[in-house]
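Q: What would this complex look like in 3D?
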Amino acid sequence: MNCKEVLNIKAKEIDGYLEQYLPKQKEYPSEIFEAMRYSIFAGGKRLRPVLLLSTCEMLGGNSKEAIPFACAIEMIHTYSLIHDDLPAMDNDDYRRGKLTSHKKFGEALAILAGDGLLHHAMEIMANACVENCSEKTVKAMQAIAQGAGVYGMLSGQVVDVLSEGKEIDEKTMYFIHKNKTAAMLQGALKAGAILAGATKQQVEMMEQAGEKLGVAFQIADDVLDITSSLEELGKPVHSDEKNEKNTYVTIYGIEKSKEMIQNLSQEAICIFKTFSKGTFLAELTQYLIDRKS
Amino acid sequence: MNCKEVLNIKAKEIDGYLEQYLPKQKEYPSEIFEAMRYSIFAGGKRLRPVLLLSTCEMLGGNSKEAIPFACAIEMIHTYSLIHDDLPAMDNDDYRRGKLTSHKKFGEALAILAGDGLLHHAMEIMANACVENCSEKTVKAMQAIAQGAGVYGMLSGQVVDVLSEGKEIDEKTMYFIHKNKTAAMLQGALKAGAILAGATKQQVEMMEQAGEKLGVAFQIADDVLDITSSLEELGKPVHSDEKNEKNTYVTIYGIEKSKEMIQNLSQEAICIFKTFSKGTFLAELTQYLIDRKS
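A: Here is my prediction, written as structure tokens for the whole assembly.
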């Protein structure tokens, strides 16, 4: 099986877990569950939960204990996309080839569906910590909260929004990608390592790898936004240009951006390969930067 | 000292803790901290953190351990107000006599400031659970997450938004108030009790009291919206009417609503008075339903 096939199998497994944590509801508040489920099951790659569970397995952990955290991180990621797409933000009508939440349910319910997913992620992690109260579970929750929070993903989103229509320097661009995208991948790798009972040094290595992988992944996204078509990408191409968004491509050009993707991804791959069971994460990194959509 | 004076002193203490958890930032992302601080320090009563800390004290707990949870619950409450006020929701220009977040900072930053406060609450609680990993801390976090989440506060907000402009029955009205308002007060009382090491029965009693107090408090708010003036209330009066909102007053009329406030608050007071140190919470309940703003 190649990496893509393995990723697809793992993604389907995660879909099953998400179904358990986010079931259809018949009673109040069924509408909010419908909206949360619409975005959660809109066909994501499940990259963050796969990274979390695979890291846990790679380091000899019991990935069953990691499932609630994996689902929580996917919910946080999905909430961030719903809010990103809002008219006040990127104002996107499509995401993964489907109408965005506010186009489908209206703006009020889209805001609440995003809020709901973040709430639900917090609740699922808190429940997991109560069920299995240990240093590992609370530290995994902390890693995810920090990756997502005001010094992580959210700060990247804030600077991204504030930078629209302005010229920004390389340092700011790196800040955006490192936080908006990489911080949550770091959170996933870190939480997976912690849940496996990894050493402090191993956790730090995974954090390092997450930064490299995350920034490479986001530059690859910037390049795809220019080179791909709507059909391949499932969302409007050149949407960055439309929004006068700064990207690695607008700052460095396509060739230099591709070189950076190579360098960063190779650094991440090197780290993964120091682990005897690191092959899947190394291959996944290569697959992610080579993808066409 | 009367109850209002005690409440003010406690609120000032909480302001000091909030200042520590939400300091001014000079570097990225300073703007989001400015927006989060603007709403947090806009002059709230600090009711939820006061309830949490007072319950913890009443039951013989160490309220120092409870401070991060008290700050987290105030941040969650403030986030919910910022999102409630958005144009897609209640579209309010004023809150507590000051411009609402989106009027002051624009809609994008207001959405993100709300998100940021929810993220930050999660992070503060996770940090507290790491610092002091125990059944008490994780269960307190769970109580707050549940009170705020998709089966708590958020579900009330969803049904409230979906009911605008429609006639709703008593059951739905109760659902909204119980969840939108009471669930977080229940979360505060429950978390305070858990952190004090209360028995299961004591925790359940506080949950009961929270429901009664919360619904009474919200009906009092409905009545104030009709009877108070802008100057007293700090936000436009008759805003419910403007938004075609269902309230206890539109369903039951003012007299019957006042009767319900009395009955519910007395039930809460009875519960508080069964505790030897329950006087403050009993007096606070009375003060809250008698308030003029």
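A: To summarize the key features: The CA atoms of residues 39 and 69 of chain B lie 19 Å apart. The mean pLDDT of chain B is 93.
Q: Very helpful, thank you.
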